[in-house]
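Regression report. Comparing outputs from two consecutive submissions.

Submission 1:
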Amino acid sequence: MLLIIGGMLPATPFELEASENRVVNFANDIAPIIHEKCSNCHRKGQVGPFELISFQDVRNRAATIQAVIKDKYMPPWKPVSDDLEYSNDRRLTAEEKKAFASWVESGMPAGDLSSIESPDFPSDWSLGEPDLVVQMKGRFEVPASGPDVYRSFVFPLQLDEDQWVKAIELKPTAKGAVHHALFFLDSSGEARRLDGRDGQAGISGMSFLRGSQGVGGISGLGGYVPGAIPNKLPGDLATRLPKGSDIVMQTHFHPTGKVEWESATLGLYFADRAPTRKLNPVQVPPLFGRFANLDVPAGVSDFEISDSMTFPVDVEIIRVGGHAHYICREMELKATLPGGEKINLLTIDDWDLDWQDTYQLKEPLSLPKGTRVDVRILYDNSADNPENPNSPPQRITWGRESNDEMGSLILQVLAKDEQERPKLEAAIRDQLRQAMRGGARQGTQNSAGSRISEARKGIIERLDSNGDGKITFEEVPSSLRTRVFDYADLNGDKVIDEKEIQQYISRRSNR
């Protein structure tokens, strides 16, 4: 979300170029840019490692700022598509970049510093004071060194009645070590039961949601990466938080060389009432690509998965985003209207796990019934990929840990007519069923000698998370158990053994 400070808009290109003799100065030209695009993160209590508010703050860091602007590392913004406008777009314009470079080259003149109106941030929370602040259970030690740490933490909400949340803001205490976090709603009490079982705060790993709907994004509540600014859902839109539920934060830590302690707080922003329409998350492919046969051989630089979905009703797109891990290189989300017109909803040509974000459209995008959305995700598992977690490269398959892989583009969608929402939700369920049956386009290696992995061997076996050749009831997400076990568990013992797997594959092949 762009923070516009009243009366402090950046100088226009006309103003900057009005006179060849005019020297760009901090007060007139640079302060408005910094306060609008940088200060919200680079201020006390926020994720930026240093403050960027005063003339001296910016002057001291000018060389660093100029370098990261030139490299497009800051402000953090990954989409390269221009078909749509996003409300949280933080990119600097060409004129703003030129102004900063001119200021540095001319010796960084101050101008009239007394004329600067200091930014008035509402609080040390980006969105102002929350309606509810929740502390995570316990305190977790992030070691100074060693491998990355994956840990899930419980935030008990203690709600006596249902609430509707418009935004969630995270305040980590181990700021330097938090790589990213995802929020999930747990209404089952399972996370509370597992919390602290190994003697430390939280739950080890990222897979406690294996048997819950949260894996499919149905109970997802967004996420956090350093530098991402939370957005409130527009209008009266909000997500239901049932009474008695908890929020669980799945967290990836990267040790920083010193011990850090995580004791995070969440700020929740509530709506006054239930929304008039329900927001539906759509993942393409479903379940973060679990059934897309994501199996990337070592050394392959152009492994691709793709999938599509057609909307059965008129819809409005509110937000788009993506999720993948280290070896993802590109992702693309396009819409094709019934008449053939194409809209680029999101393209990222240099995916970076450090800067995954959700992109909220400035205005909802209306798409007519029959619109198809197409997803393409490209992975680079070669030694030339500097983000590859393995040296030398190793085969990487689908999994929850960051050294595994995932891949989905995620849309938050409204049925334009709320009475037609059941049709939209049925299509989302059908998309998941089709993926389980091998309907999604499978992973392919695009180079010479291309191969398409055998879909019939890549569906039910992928539920075997421990690789013992059997599928237990606990290994299957709760939303899928009835369907899977009714079809494949022939003797009803809640275990699908190797013989039953082969019979399942045979029946599918014959069908």
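Submission 2:
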Amino acid sequence: FTEYLVDQLEVTDLGARWDGMLTYHPSCHLSRGMQIDRQPRALLANVKGVQLVDLPHEEECCGFGGIFSMEHPELSAEWLKRKISNLEETTSPTLVVAEAGCLMHIAGGLHRQKKPQQVMHIAEILNHR
């Protein structure tokens, strides 16, 4: 989605507005597997009113990894705990992702731990006015 917007349509500003703090989680699949990292960051940088906060240890996997979370549930749970702890360090109420698997995994972990943070897909942020 972000690759299409930025590289094909050459669009980085969709007129989105977000008054507040956001933190971006680059998924393993997109950033390592497909080399898509610049595109979501370029789009988020053009959201008016946003305060983008770096996620500590952002390069670390959230633990979903497709089938990984099913084959290695203990490791997956530990990685997820670390990801949530890193999100809490930012004090950002919202984590932005560009990958559905990460979204479900992290949102589920936040819900189970009864944490107040939310996870949103980048498309939701880019559509926000």
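Expected: both submissions complete independently.
Actual: both completed, but the second showed a warning that disappeared on reload.
Relevant detail on submission 2: Residues 26 and 120 are 13 Å apart (CA to CA).
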